[in-house]
Amino acid sequence: MILRDYFSIYVTESEQTVLTRQHRAWVALYALHAGQGPRASVLRANEVTEADLLEFEDSWRKLRRRNPAQLNK
């Protein structure tokens, strides 16, 4: 696996992602929150849709509230 930045996972043709759709949506939400590129690129890189982001945004916000100190590092 080649990691090109902190928020996106790039896999070779022989690898498969082990992240669930929820986890990929969370990664995309973190990336968008951090300003990591155009929205369409972040969605494509994480293989999620706008509908996925909407579905998991509440759970992502709850996750962020659990440990806010780590988000400011």
Q: What does this entry show, briefly?
A:
The chain is built from 4 helices and no strands. The radius of gyration is 12 Å and the shape is globular. The chain is 58% helix and 0% strand.
Oligomer: single chain
Write the H/E string, N to C: HHHH
Percent strand equals: under 5%
Mean pLDDT: 82
Helix content: 55-70%
Low-pLDDT stretches are none
* Major beta sheet summary: none
Shape assignment: globular
User: CA-to-CA gap between the ends?
Assistant: 25 Å
Number of strands: 0
Give an account of the 3D structure.
By secondary structure, the chain is mainly alpha-helical. It contains 4 helices and no strands. The protein has helices spanning about 20-35, 40-45, 50-65, 70. Helix 1 (about 20-35) runs antiparallel to helix 2 and helix 1 (about 20-35) crosses helix 3 (about 50-65). It is globular. The chain starts with 20 loop residues before the first helix and ends with a helix. The relative contact order is 0.16.
